[in-house]
């Protein structure tokens, strides 16, 4: 997947001198997945083996999601944003590691973060050819731009029959059509916390998929399963439940 | 040291003498990069061109001649174009195409256009072939199709009055083998670009859609109605396919495992490639087995004809009700939109015809 990387230096954390090159390191984000601490990979897909907080039994058949704008902040309030994005495709084991071709300075950062999805100003309809080529778009009638996540699978419904679900996270929109409105932002910033970087670093980031169905809203797949993109209330519930989905498990350096 | 210098001088003299006494042929074909349409350039990634098979004028011309020449078949009666005719967007009108003996295949002939943008390079309904070159390799020896052998085909081409020279011009060698044959055919096939439908011109602000076509596009894009875009793309993807494999609810039990027979994964049983929605007016019948004769049947299938099965794609909506339950007006409008993706300039392009 093509990764478009550019650097926005809000404040000068980098410098070009020799000493600074010695003091800079490379980093990458590795994404792993679990269901309440049980590791999940694409080998676990396509069979009903998960149970959510609502006691719905479900499978996962497709999971891909987008992260963007990794940010390093120091205690002085200075920050560097690495503009760019990565579409993590768990189904096909693609892009589970994201290594921007940018170095960061050794030291302590008060917070490292990334955006789940796109900020609104980056969520530009049709702007990214690699995402267009993989049909990651959101219909213009819902504001255009791109999906944040596609989590598809089947669950056993109240009739004990397998039924499809499409947990697709996008920018919440109302009044679909030529002039949709947006009740609230549904991208969110994932904070990984305080880190000290002394060498090339691999950030091991976990997504607990079960959290999407759990906290604070217990998700009932019998009620919310498909056609969720035009459902702004569902999008806001996803936004709420997404707040505790990601965690920084460790840093290898 | 003096001895070494003497050797170098002698070697140099030998090379110069050789050069003056021998004619050196330097192979040089004419690069012919694909003409990428504006919408493709603006919206999606560049096409896939193998580094060992660049597009050249001579290679494309040779590939075109081979594509229309029945010499590739065992009894010289069938060309690629017999099942992939220009007037049908390079498919044919049969449910199953017949080979040289009249035997029928088991899948509907696929149309050929915009294949250079198949980024995963999995070809055929079941993705059994990787790369366009390899795809072109298969029908020649398929016992139901051309039923030939590559040894026989290579011999016939080698003994032909024109082909050795054409291969010399295209590839710098007059020694013909299957690899060069398929490279030439693939070069021609990559030139088969369809980008001039009514809807393309609408996106380029050259024309307007009818109200029916516009509403049909909205049905296509509305997750509460057609929800076609998840597999077939949008105005931001001029391919109108994701080139991936889905079970779209045709059957509750499978007589043809499709993608599953290739991957060996039961979770892939009953999955077939999403075809592009371009040029549907020319490409009936539809689906991998050509079971639907008309677009109305196709739309009715998604609206109320879905069959449940363990591998049905979760993107299929309202399976228990048979489908997305479109109104008759929405069905008609959706059909109008789909037909607006038909590219008459493509099927009438003289560069793609046997003339």
Automatic annotation (TrEMBL), chain A:
Residues 1-17 form the signal peptide. Residues 26-221 form the Copper-binding protein MbnP-like domain. The keyword Signal applies. InterPro entries: MbnP-like_dom (IPR046863). It holds the Pfam family MbnP. Keywords: Signal. PROSITE patterns: PROKAR_LIPOPROTEIN (PS51257). This is Copper-binding protein MbnP-like domain-containing protein.
From TrEMBL, chain B:
Heme c 1 binds at residues 80, 83-84. Binds 2 heme groups. GO terms for molecular function: cytochrome-c peroxidase activity; electron transfer activity; heme binding; metal ion binding. The keyword Zinc does not apply. Heme c 2 binds at residues 228, 231-232. Its main location: periplasm. This is Cytochrome-c peroxidase. It comes from Seonamhaeicola maritimus.
């Amino acid at each position: 997947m093509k990764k478009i990387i550019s650097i926005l230096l809000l404040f000068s954390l980098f410098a070009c001198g020799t000493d600074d090159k010695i003091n800079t390191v490379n980093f990458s984000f590795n994404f792993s997945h679990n269901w309440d601490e049980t590791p999940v990979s694409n080998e676990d897909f396509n069979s009903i083996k998960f149970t959510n907080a609502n006691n719905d039994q479900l499978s996962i058949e497709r999971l891909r999601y987008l992260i963007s704008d990794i940010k390093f902040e120091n205690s002085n309030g200075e920050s560097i944003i690495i503009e760019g994005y990565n579409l993590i495709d768990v189904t096909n084991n693609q892009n589970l590691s994201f290594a921007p071709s940018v170095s960061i300075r050794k030291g302590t950062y008060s917070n490292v973060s990334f955006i789940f999805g796109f900020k609104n100003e980056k969520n530009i309809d049709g702007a990214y050819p690699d995402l267009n080529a993989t049909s990651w778009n959101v219909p213009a009638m819902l504001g255009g731009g791109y999906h944040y996540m596609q989590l598809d699978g089947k669950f056993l419904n109240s009739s004990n029959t397998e039924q499809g679900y499409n947990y697709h996270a996008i920018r919440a929109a109302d009044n679909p059509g030529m002039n949709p409105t947006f009740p609230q932002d549904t991208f969110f910033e994932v904070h990984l916390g305080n880190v000290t970087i002394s060498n090339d670093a691999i950030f091991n980031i976990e997504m607990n998929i079960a959290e999407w169905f759990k906290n604070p809203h217990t998700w009932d797949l019998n009620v919310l399963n498909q056609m969720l993109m035009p459902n702004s209330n569902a999008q806001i519930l996803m936004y709420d439940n997404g707040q505790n989905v990601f965690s920084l498990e460790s840093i290898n350096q | 040291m003096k001895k070494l210098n003497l050797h170098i001088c002698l070697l140099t003299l030998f090379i110069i003498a050789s050069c003056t006494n021998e004619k050196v042929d330097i192979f040089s074909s004419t690069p012919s990069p694909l003409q990428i349409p504006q919408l493709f350039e603006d919206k999606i990634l560049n096409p896939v061109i193998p580094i060992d098979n660049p597009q050249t004028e001579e290679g494309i011309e040779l590939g075109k001649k081979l594509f229309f020449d029945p010499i590739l078949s065992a009894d010289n009666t069938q060309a690629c174009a017999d099942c992939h005719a220009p007037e049908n967007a390079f498919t044919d009108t049969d449910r199953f195409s017949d080979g040289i003996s009249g035997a029928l295949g088991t899948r509907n002939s696929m149309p050929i256009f915009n294949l250079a943008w198949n980024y995963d390079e999995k070809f055929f309904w079941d993705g059994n072939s990787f790369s366009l070159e390899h795809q072109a390799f298969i029908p020649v020896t398929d016992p139901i199709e051309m039923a030939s052998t590559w040894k026989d085909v290579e011999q016939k081409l080698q003994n032909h009055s024109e082909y050795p020279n054409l291969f010399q011009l295209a590839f710098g060698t007059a020694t013909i083998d299957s690899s060069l044959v398929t490279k030439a055919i693939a070069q021609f096939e990559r030139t088969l670009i369809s980008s001039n439908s009514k809807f393309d011109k609408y996106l380029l602000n050259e024309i307007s859609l009818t109200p029916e076509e516009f509403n049909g596009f909205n049905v296509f894009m509305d997750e509460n109605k057609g929800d076609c875009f998840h597999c077939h793309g949008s105005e931001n993807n001029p391919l109108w396919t994701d080139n991936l494999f889905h079970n779209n609810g045709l059957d509750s039990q499978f007589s043809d495992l499709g993608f599953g027979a290739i991957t060996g994964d039961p979770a892939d049983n009953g999955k077939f490639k999403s075809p592009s929605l371009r040029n549907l007016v020319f490409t009936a019948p539809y689906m991998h087995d050509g079971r639907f004769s008309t677009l109305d049947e196709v739309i009715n299938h998604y609206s109320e004809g879905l069959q449940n099965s363990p591998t049905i794609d979760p993107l299929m909506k309202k399976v228990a009700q048979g489908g997305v339950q479109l109104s008759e007006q929405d069905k008609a409008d959706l059909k109008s939109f789909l037909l607006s993706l038909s590219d008459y300039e493509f099927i009438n392009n003289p560069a793609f015809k046997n003339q």
